Structure formats: C-alpha cells, structure tokens
Amino acid sequence: MTTPPPPGPYDxxxxxxxxxxxxxxxxxPYPPAPTAWPTPPTMPSAVRAAQVLAFVAAGxxxxxxxxxxxxxxxxxxxxxxxxxxxxxxxFVCALLFGRAGSGAKVTAIVFASFVILIGVGMMGRGIxxxxxxxxxxxxxxxxxxxxxxxxxxxxxx
Length: 157
Hints:
By secondary structure, this protein is mostly helical.
C-alpha cells in the first residue's frame, strides 16, 4: 500500500499559494501594518487645570443652590443661580476645551472675569464663598492666558 503524497502548495485545495521566494517584488495578499500611529496631541497642563477649576466652580455653584434651597426656599435658589450664572458659562466653555477653537478660550476668560467681579461683590457683602469664587476666577484667567493655552486653541483639528 502506498500512501498519497503530502499536499503541495499548488493543490486545488489551496486558494492562494505562497509566492516563490526567488521572485523579487513578490507581494503578500495584504499590505504590511504600519509600525507607529501618530499620537494625538495632549491638552497642556494649564488648559487642563483651567478645565478642572471650572468644573470645581460649577460644583460649588450647584452645592450653593442646593443649600440655599434647603435652608431658605425657592427664592434663594433663584438668587444663587443668578449670582453664579457666569460659572455656568465657564463650565460650558470648559466642556468644549478639547475640540473648540480660540472662541471658547476668549469666552471662558470673559465669563471668568465676571466670576471674579461677582466674587468681589460677595466678599463686600460678607459672604465667604466670594473669596473662593474670586480665587477660582483669577486662576482660570491666568491659566487660559498662558502661551501654551493659546497654542492649544490655535492648533489644527
């Protein structure tokens, strides 16, 4: 009894036979995978810090509104939301820092400047939260005014 020979590369069962090694420029069925993908640019630390500070300010504004509603009623909630409305503007701009242009930066600086003014007014009335809002507003304006922040918002997307 003889055994059949082992299947070769050109048998009908093999759809794609390997190319002969001696032929120059023989191609594989698929192109080779790229060796390195370009890394996306990372947000500078100053912009990330301004974003986090805006989130903190929005959280404080929310807590203030909830506390005012619990302690003094719905009228105080309206006053708290009205007093911290620029914080909401900074928060919305901070959500767009990753994909927006320099308009988001300028708008956030304007809203942060209003946060500073409201914080100074609150300190003048003896409300200790005014000091926190003033500090957060100044920190946001300083972080967004740095050179690396300008480069980030002018980048190609």
